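REQUEST ID: PR-0412
SUBMITTED BY: lab tech R.K.
PRIORITY: routine
TASK: structure prediction, single protein chain
INPUT:
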Amino acid sequence: MIPLPRVLELTPVRTQSKTGYFGVYLNKPGQPKPYQAKVRRGGKDVYLACFATAEEAALCVARTPEGQAAAERSAAAVPLTSQEVRQQAQAEGLTLRVAENTTGYFGVSLNKPGQPKPYMARVRRGGKTLLLGNFVTAEEAALCVARTPDDGQAVAAERAAAAPPLTSEEVRQQAQAEELTLVVAENKAGYFGVSLDKPGRSKPYKAKVKRGGKKVYLGYFATAEEAALCVARSPEGRVAAQRAASAESQDTLPALPSGAFANEEEVVPPVPPGANRWDGLVLLEERARRACFLLACAERQEKELPKRQRMQ
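STATUS: complete
OUTPUT:
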């Protein structure tokens, strides 16, 4: 009896690139086959082909010697612990979706018990089941699912895109209903965590926060208020609101000794020779804040002067 050839198990290597796969690039967005598969061979880039989906391109790469070597390196890598996976998901602004199944996570199943990578990750896309790979822990598989949009997320994104944007007043009412605070800031957008990133576009305002030492982008919005509401819902937005409220409650000027006057020249020195213009801008900003401080001090002294005269 002739032995059957061994079936080679191909594993597309997941990465943190825009496509999510090793050797796969979004080269022609908007074209029928926008994803390009390529590998590095003999010090040169070898272009394999273009495909309609990132998964097809990843499978093409997985068939190459370079793809198989990358899969072996990935298999030898130390898996993330459950705590590390949760920290990574938080840093990327992702949510590990829980479910009532044996693994406890949506899209994750215990497919190969007793194997080094027993947990399988999969999603539904285009009416078909898309297998994402096998993982050491259920949390790693859940993180892979969270990084991959499925049919449900695509429908939600389409509904969100089709929904008319909230007006500024509606956003404020919604924030009040959720007991949130839209933290104002001295920037072009007027709100903390909001920037005018794509002027002229339908959704020009970008919402972002700093999380775990990294910038986390929350999305684009039609109005600055909508973006500010998104930021206000994040943990970082709530902390910023608490800091702003605390600063307002403790907004008191330091008391000056009786008859003393602050001297601006002693507080803010002139621009030193050889300083660049950015240093000058920072210095001007500091002088503006100091000018406001001096004005407030002068007003306080004018109010206290009649009291001193009466006491004398």
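NOTES: Residues 252-271 have pLDDT under 50 and may be disordered.
REVIEWED BY: pending
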